[in-house]
Design brief:
The protein is an alpha/beta fold and 288 residues long. The protein is built from 13 helices and 8 strands. The protein folds into 2 domains: 203 residues, Malonyl-Coenzyme A Acyl Carrier Protein, domain 2 (3-Layer(aba) Sandwich); 67 residues, 2-Layer Sandwich (Alpha-Beta Plaits).
């Protein structure tokens, strides 16, 4: 990206100045153990995604009206939509990562992906395995084929064990904290004043927040506040985008995870186009 489009260095510099994270060095040189620290990962993912977006916008003149992002990606979506300045977003996601890491001691929380189980059945299991001081809840509604649970490690493991006996496939996720669960309450409290002190610009674009899954033009800080310890409603967000008449979905940034999830949500009759921009030069050619 930086070699093909040297002007994107300015984007990285702005984010590095605001977050105090050596984003380019971490992305290009590592080490992996530093890059995997969520306080570093979050500014890196944000900045790379925004750089991808700026390339697509400049090279193709893309005109997008609706934006959505998965978890941290909501910050990237807000920057792309012109609702949030990159420098403020970079500062916020660094603080968000630090707050999330502080909220739960290492080893206390966990997350797991659950496949081949309905939302209703998994919600019932979450209630069953949440008792006393232990809790587990659905953190990500990714697709009908994949849900993610988060909570106390013991509750996550016991739920996964029972779900497996019911025919579900469960995979423990290598994460540093139980994101999007009630265990993030302290992180939410820590981020609340920072987010309420943030300016969100008004324009003609719409963002579909994770927490409501409904399009909004006048974005409010409460959406990002509630997202910290609330679920990512990705199924509902994409379904809402379809209801609004959206037929072309473009995943912006490294990887193809979200475009894969969208393919599992939208109809398979060819009425929707789905693109991933993981390989930026190839993506430009296919989108021209």
């Amino acid at each position: 990206l930086l070699e093909a489009f040297p002007w994107t260095n300015a984007i990285f510099e702005e984010a590095e100045d605001a977050s105090k994270v050596a984003i380019r060095r971490l992305c290009l040189e590592g080490p992996d153990e530093d890059l995997k620290l969520t306080a570093n990962t979050q500014p890196c993912l944000l900045t790379v995604s925004v750089a991808y977006w700026e390339v697509l916008k400049r090279e193709l003149g893309l005109s997008i009206q609706y934006f959505a992002g998965h978890s941290l990606g909501e910050y990237s979506a807000l920057v792309a939509a012109g609702k949030l300045d990159l420098s403020r977003a970079a500062y916020l996601v660094r603080a968000r990562g630090e707050a999330m890491q502080r909220a739960v001691p290492a080893g206390v929380g966990g997350m797991a992906a659950v496949m081949k189980m309905s939302v209703e059945a998994l919600e019932e299991l979450c209630l069953k395995h949440s008792h006393g001081s232990f809790s587990v809840e659905i953190a990500n509604y990714n697709s009908d084929a994949q849900l993610v649970i988060a909570g106390h490690k013991e509750a996550v493991k016991s739920l996964a064990a029972e779900a497996s006996t019911m025919g579900a496939r469960c995979i423990e996720l290598p994460v540093s904290a139980p994101f999007h669960s009630s265990l993030m309450n302290e992180a939410r409290a820590e981020m609340l004043p920072l987010l309420r002190d943030t300016v969100f610009h008004k324009n003609e674009h719409y963002v579909i927040p994770n927490i409501s899954a409904l399009e909004i033009k006048d974005y409010q800080p409460e959406f990002l506040i509630e997202q910290i310890d609330g679920p990512v409603r990705w199924i509902q967000s994409i379904t809402q985008a379809q209801a609004l008449g959206m037929t072309r979905f473009i995943e912006v940034g490294p990887g193809k995870v979200l475009s894969g999830l969208v393919k599992r949500i939208v109809p398979t009759d060819g009425s929707c186009e789905i693109f991933a921009t993981d390989e930026i030069t190839q993506a430009l050619a296919s989108l021209r």
